[in-house]
Structure formats: structure tokens, C-alpha cells
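Technical note accompanying the year-one report. For the benefit of new consortium partners, we illustrate the data format agreed upon in the data management plan: each record pairs a sequence with a C-alpha cell string. No post-processing was applied to the example shown here.
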Amino acid sequence: MSHWHPHVTVASVVAREGRLLLVEERIDGRLVLNQPAGHLEPGESLAQAAVRETLEETGWDIRLDAFIGCYQWQAPDGSDYLRFAFAGTALAHHPERTLDEGIERAVWLSPEELLAESTRHRSPLVWQVAADWLAGRRQPLDLVRQL
């Protein structure tokens, strides 16, 4: 019997002055757009992972304000992903920080600019999470609990 292990990931939607914080990252030689996102690490909560990944990928400290939702997606290669998406507020930028490997830069795009770049989205999760955030989906953070 094979063991199924979906990838548990987090993502943060951070808005400032009408623009969303995104990353340009190189995946298989292609420059793609994604929310600050990454894998849950042992011993951390989903919320802690979202804050950590945002700092590591963008150089921004954030405060989480709400839970947007949980998303299940199967990539073309058959890998399964569970993405937990959070809404946050940018607090402080650390431009001297070296960003995670593969991350070219952090960018602030308007929702219209992000939608116009849909062929460069890393996955369909990028726009779905942004669209849900734009539609006002906000749940209390305590909906996601670590026991």
C-alpha cells in the first residue's frame, strides 16, 4: 500500500496602497508569480509558517489579520497540495535580507496587473486566493488551530 503525502503549504495576501505583495521566482527556468508561500515546517503552526515564509521570500515582516481559506489542488505532475491562505498587514521591510533561493524579487502589483499576468502564475491557486481576498473572504485566525 502506497503512502499519500500531500504538500502542506501556506500563502499570505498582503496589501498596501491598493497593491498586493507577490514574488517573482524561477521555477524550471521560468519566471513565475506567486504569493509569498511555502511549506509548513516541523514544529511550527500554519500561522507561524505564513509569517516566516513571507519574511524569507520578500524581506517583509507581517502581522496576520485573518484566515482566507484552505485550497486543495493537484498539480499536472500528480502532486497534491493543501494551501492555507492568510491575509496580513505589512509592518516593516528589511531590504538588506537575502531572499530565499529561487526568488528573484518581491513585487507590488495591483489586482488588475496580477490578473493580466495570469500566464505567469505559478499555479491556479495564485489568482483563486487573490480573488477570494478581493471578494472579502476573511475568517477569524482562530479557525486554524494548533493543539
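Partners are asked to follow this layout when depositing records. The beta strands are 7-16, 19-27, 30-34, 37-39, 60-74, 80-93, 103-109.
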